[in-house]
Design a protein that fits this description.
six-stranded parallel sheet, alpha/beta, 7 helices, binds farnesyl diphosphate, single chain, Undecaprenyl pyrophosphate synthetase, globular
Amino acid sequence: MKMPPRHVAIIMDGNGRWAVSRGKIRLEGHRAGAKKVLEVIDWCKESGVEFLTLYAFSTENWKRSAEEVDGLMKLMGLLLRTKVGLFVKSNVRVRVIGRKEDLPAPLQRQIASAEKRTAQCDGLNLQVAVSYGGRAEIADAVKRYAQDVLDGRVEASTAPSDEVFRRYLYAPDVPDPDLIIRTSGEFRLSNFLLWESAYSEFWKTGILWPDFGKDEFEAALESFSGRERRMGGRFK
Ligand code: FPP
């Protein structure tokens, strides 16, 4: 059997376009996108994927209208609150990465509760990136590293190795993404997992996120299994 990617990360793009093309408000697209998340969790479990990271809200998404931002915050909170029982039952561990301190207090509480209730789950690891930016993550890591240097916990005469620097990221125990999927046609990272994606494989589709189907998911995994990953090494 072909080895599935251990860690799949997804840039769930196209909710707005999906809604507008149907004459609906953008938030309807995000609602359809949230339903898709539950399906993708199942597909990951069936395929043997161990880690799934979803880009739900970037540090740049704060620039959207107050109505859309507020709707998204409530939608994420609702999903965490109403589906946490399902996650526990299906052994899914939920964690959120990003600047959680910038989120509204009710969402922070819903996140803390979902993380606590699923902390012992050891099936699929679901990471949701919320108020997440790759540059912000690196800046936050540097800030904590500098503090450790100032406090004398770290020797700064040489640059930190990858192994040491990783400890300052939001989720040091999570392996780097093997495969990054992006929907809705764009071909860019948009500030997602900048440090962790150094050797990730990339797969994109023009399909909008709410329309993303099992066929596309399987095509992405199939494409991944055919790639030769040299991680900077030479051809065999
Ligand atoms: C991008 O589409 C999508 C988002 C900014 C939001 C994605 C969030 C969810 C689906 C909620 C998931 C919740 C959890 C807890 C996992 P876009 O609005 O940028 O689409 P466009 O490019 O067509 O405008």
